[in-house]
Amino acid sequence: MTQYNVAVVGAGAVGEEILRVLAEHHFPAKSIKVLARSARTLTVDGIDYQVEPTTAEAFDGVDIALFAGTEGEKGAAVTFGPDAAARGCVVIDNGADFRMRSDVPLVVPEVNAAALAEHKGIIANPNCSTAQLVLTLKPIHDAFKIKRVLISTYQAVSGAGGAAVNELQAQTTALGEGRQISSAGPAFPVQIAANVIPQIGGFDDAGYTSEEMKLVHETRKILGDDSIAITPMITARVPVFIGHSESVYIETEKPVTPDEARELWRNFPGLRVVDDIHSDDPSLRYPTPLAAAHKDTTYVGRVRQDLGNKNGLTFWVVSDNLRKGAATNAVQIAEALVERGWVKRGA
Amino acid sequence: MTQYNVAVVGAGAVGEEILRVLAEHHFPAKSIKVLARSARTLTVDGIDYQVEPTTAEAFDGVDIALFAGTEGEKGAAVTFGPDAAARGCVVIDNGADFRMRSDVPLVVPEVNAAALAEHKGIIANPNCSTAQLVLTLKPIHDAFKIKRVLISTYQAVSGAGGAAVNELQAQTTALGEGRQISSAGPAFPVQIAANVIPQIGGFDDAGYTSEEMKLVHETRKILGDDSIAITPMITARVPVFIGHSESVYIETEKPVTPDEARELWRNFPGLRVVDDIHSDDPSLRYPTPLAAAHKDTTYVGRVRQDLGNKNGLTFWVVSDNLRKGAATNAVQIAEALVERGWVKRGA
């Protein structure tokens, strides 16, 4: 079996999760090196990784580099990605910098693995909120043609990085002890514990956030259909550590029933339908972020036909934003490349 | 000045909030009696109220009775409301039991105070999530005619009563101390801290919850227009103590710009526009439930035109669910009756 020299760039929450998923999936790694700003030892699930500083030379001999990406600023892939690709390494970038470039495939393997064939050394992983959404849209779009999508999100703080997780934890401790929280930040402009913040990313001239516009552009690119009208009603941060939830409404060209949708989803890889609303077991009634945490799967439930409109369907999608929203999807891209022999170099 | 004998029925979170709002608003009360299941002393903001058991006779001589209502079960207004009304008392019920009856006005005073003229002794207060929604819809509907509404909610636990608040607080303390939460309940079927629960109320045959259907039926009744298509995409519980948030999308017959909407809202009572997204002061950028708590006002922000559709508008509405969603609106109904001389009896 061919094995590959792998580099993981980034030693934060997503970097750690990539290392975890590579191990869980038994990825055929000959070696795994971890690159970040500065050298240190990173321990993930009992395994020690020696973190080396990221340099162009560090990619020599690397077959696949998984860049964790960063929130809000240019990722290491901007600085090192093209160099790494020039050295024959396939770059899989979880950051936002390359996603909309026409020469870079943006891939959720269950949806558009074929797009990997055209890669020129750099492949983009979609934004967390897009990945779980397109999984649910794809089979419906193929069968019933989706004309429009409206979405409101409930996003976990881990999508904003480790500082955001620490901020929610510290505020939770304070609230748990009955203490007042006097100041917010640095991760969020206002208190996130016991609150909802209706902003993720910066604002454009029309008042939409970057997170909202990612849902529009990335979804169209992955589904390969710019005709779908997508309305990001809001992308909001909720006081949840792991797991993004999405309230979704779609209109289809052909009428679609909840049963038809559930059947399509049951047969689609990466998805699990949790929609037994009358079950005695609460975990079978509908998905929640807490139940989805640390899972590779994306869960869909609360499926209903629109009231008085057979071409409308509304549902609830939940996934671990660090897994399918980041690490799992990136590793799955690597696996798809390996399966198809589209990694340039193996040992 | 005419003064009134007032009864508040219910000594839970909403009952307490009604007493607080009556005091803050300097309601012309000659007397205030508090009725509940059993006698005890209730202290609200330093004022002691002697709670008496609710009986039909307790309403003798009462001019206005404000029923706090209960979550999920038949309220005291079912048992005692008709009796109280027969004794000449005007009943204002915050419970769900009477809202959709054709002989009971369902009122948000800023929107449809005129409907109070037809009251036959019982007046209904809308559900918390409806009250704040209709405030934002009314001026837009009058000026641009709303054809459809889609909504996803982010609702605070206090809407589910005191046990729910205690449950979130206990779970928050556990999480703050790094402890595992082994079991959920009794208020919620699964852990609510650090989670989102996409269910409020029971399910109907189409899979919608009672909370979702209240948004449909109550909104149409208050706006007096059954032609509006309303899609409750989800009503979800978030780990917030006070303040419901709503992500709303509307389609209007005539195109409406964000500036036109904001101008209408600025001139509408009970509403405040918080939409200065580039402000240095985070509290002016958009509303959050934490900032809306303990306020009578409903806040609206994140106003945007739909992408590529001038007849679509999306925005974010936040209000204190115990205030405008319950106590404040009930007291405002009483105030509207007093102003118009529509209380049957004053002393």
UniProtKB/TrEMBL annotation, chains A, B:
<protein>
    <recommendedName>
        <fullName>Aspartate-semialdehyde dehydrogenase</fullName>
        <ecNumber>1.2.1.11</ecNumber>
    </recommendedName>
</protein>
<comment type="subunit">
    <text>Homodimer.</text>
</comment>
<comment type="similarity">
    <text>Belongs to the aspartate-semialdehyde dehydrogenase family.</text>
</comment>
<dbReference type="GO" id="GO:0009089">
    <property type="term" value="P:lysine biosynthetic process via diaminopimelate"/>
</dbReference>
<dbReference type="GO" id="GO:0051287">
    <property type="term" value="F:NAD binding"/>
</dbReference>
<keyword id="KW-0521">NADP</keyword>
<dbReference type="InterPro" id="IPR000534">
    <property type="entry name" value="Semialdehyde_DH_NAD-bd"/>
</dbReference>
<dbReference type="GO" id="GO:0009097">
    <property type="term" value="P:isoleucine biosynthetic process"/>
</dbReference>
<keyword id="KW-0560">Oxidoreductase</keyword>
<dbReference type="GO" id="GO:0046983">
    <property type="term" value="F:protein dimerization activity"/>
</dbReference>
<keyword id="KW-0457">Lysine biosynthesis</keyword>
<dbReference type="Pfam" id="PF01118">
    <property type="entry name" value="Semialdhyde_dh"/>
</dbReference>
<keyword id="KW-0791">Threonine biosynthesis</keyword>
<keyword id="KW-0220">Diaminopimelate biosynthesis</keyword>
<keyword id="KW-0028">Amino-acid biosynthesis</keyword>
<dbReference type="InterPro" id="IPR005986">
    <property type="entry name" value="Asp_semialdehyde_DH_beta"/>
</dbReference>
<dbReference type="GO" id="GO:0050661">
    <property type="term" value="F:NADP binding"/>
</dbReference>
<dbReference type="GO" id="GO:0019877">
    <property type="term" value="P:diaminopimelate biosynthetic process"/>
</dbReference>
<dbReference type="GO" id="GO:0009086">
    <property type="term" value="P:methionine biosynthetic process"/>
</dbReference>
<keyword id="KW-0486">Methionine biosynthesis</keyword>
<dbReference type="InterPro" id="IPR036291">
    <property type="entry name" value="NAD(P)-bd_dom_sf"/>
</dbReference>
<dbReference type="GO" id="GO:0009088">
    <property type="term" value="P:threonine biosynthetic process"/>
</dbReference>
<dbReference type="GO" id="GO:0004073">
    <property type="term" value="F:aspartate-semialdehyde dehydrogenase activity"/>
</dbReference>
<dbReference type="InterPro" id="IPR012280">
    <property type="entry name" value="Semialdhyde_DH_dimer_dom"/>
</dbReference>
<dbReference type="Pfam" id="PF02774">
    <property type="entry name" value="Semialdhyde_dhC"/>
</dbReference>
